[in-house]
Amino acid sequence: MKEICNKILVVDDEPKIVDAVKAYLENSGYIVFTAFDGVEALNQFEKVNPDLVILDLMLPKISGEEICQRIRKQSRIPIIMLTAKVLLDEKISGFNIGADDYITKPFSPRELVVRVRSLLRRCSDGISPLYSKMSWNNGNLEIDIDEMTVWKSGIQINLTPTEFKILSSMIKYPKKKFTREELIEIALGIDYDGFDRTIDSHIKNLRSKIEDDSSNPTYILTVRGTGYKFGSGEI
Fold it and tell me: Are the C-beta atoms of 100 and 78 separated by less than 8 Å?
């Protein structure tokens, strides 16, 4: 059974890659548009209003990083980075500028289709940050990703930049179980040379600000033996 016809924009300067990805996506029922450089990518984005973008980072004219940043200024649609870059800090950089997923070359087009399907499904379920403003439990907790603001019971609360990075990363993937090491890389950077338990202190402070009862949290949940995850309520 084929998928509902979502529109996918594939951006890469290698025609063979574009052709292969396009064929696999169309075979899965998606409507595919293509671009081979940064200028064409932005033009296509404005023209077709896609539901998801597959974006190579190494592009002529305008880099994939800049395209991602420009898209994020006006849209929360999911973006999958497609690149030959394999270093962890480069991947983290991609996530920090707004990517939702990251796949490195060479890759399996079948795997890419699975990731597209999964990401679009999460978006349709309302658990991916397609919208700048989100709320949980009838407005008990409200977050504006673009403005970097948080409200608790209608009152704006002050989070440190590190606390906001942790919270925004966790709500982006509410089903994901984050290890302490992953949260450290997201919030403190890959070059951080302290103890991994440092993240526990940030989690404790975050809970004291957003939870009704920090000793019995409902948003920032502990995953025994792993780390933490976001316990989302009704959006």
Answer: yes
**CB distance 231 to 219 below 8 Å:** yes
Instruction: Give domain 7-124's CATH number out of 3.40.50.261, 3.30.230.10, 3.60.15.30, 3.40.50.2300.
Output: 3.40.50.2300
Domain 133-230 has CATH 1.10.10.10: yes
CB atoms within 10 A of CB 161: 9
> Could you tell me which of 24, 107, 35, 87 has the C-alpha nearest to residue 64?
35
Digit-by-digit pLDDT tens for the chain (235 residues) are: 344 468 999 999 999 999 999 999 999 999 999 999 999 999 999 888 888 999 998 899 999 999 998 887 777 788 998 877 655 566 666 666 778 888 888 889 999 998 898 888 766 544 444 446 777 887 889 888 777 889 999 999 998 888 888 888 788 766 678 888 888 777 766 555 555 677 888 899 999 999 999 999 999 999 988 889 888 644 3
